[in-house]
Amino acid sequence: MFIRRMEEKDRDAYLQMAWTFYHSPAVLHPVPDCYLTRAFDEVIRSDVYADGYLPISDMGEVMGYALLAKTFSQEVGGQAVWVEEIYIKPEFQGQGIGTRLLQFIEEAYPHCGRFRLEVEPDNEEAEKLYGRLGYHVLGYRQMVKDVPLEK
Questions:
Q1: What residues contact residue 101 under an 8 Å CB cut-off, 6+ apart?
Q2: Given this model, what pLDDT does residue 141 score?
Q3: Domains in the chain: how many in total?
Q4: Within 10 A of 7 (CB to CB), how many other CB atoms are there?
Q5: How confident is the model over 17-21, as a mean pLDDT?
Q6: What is the mean predicted confidence (pLDDT) over 7-18?
Q7: What is the pTM of this model?
Q8: Which residues contact 20 (CB under 8 A, 6 or more apart)?
Q9: What is the DSSP code string of 71-99?
Q10: Among 49, 56, 80, which Cα is nearest to 7's?
């Protein structure tokens, strides 16, 4: 297995996986398909705000993806990376790919002061994985204000 940054040629594979992710119990609700396209376009356009990575099998098959958002955090005194999404195709789950993908992300951002992610309370397997990798519950209650974007 190896991991590489998303490329334009990965558009269809990413969009299919992201659609599947957003129609799974791992998320609260689906998002409009155009949001998936916007995320991919941003990853391809620049590496300023977002990055996307794909674990690839030895046979050349895309096994999943990670979508990252980057920001600066005064609380940690430097760059923070949000693991916005991590998705492993069902046929590849339970093989350590999620672990390797998260380890790769940490190695790819050696000057990052915080790695942050969200997990649905019912996703116990993911929560166990994240705990084994050193993630812990941040005692904040997250609040958001969504502003509708053009579709």
A1: 3, 53, 55, 64, 66, 86, 88
A2: 85
A3: 1
A4: 12
A5: 97
A6: 98
A7: 0.92
A8: 87
A9: EEETTTTEEEEEEEEEEE-GGGTTSSHHH
A10: 56
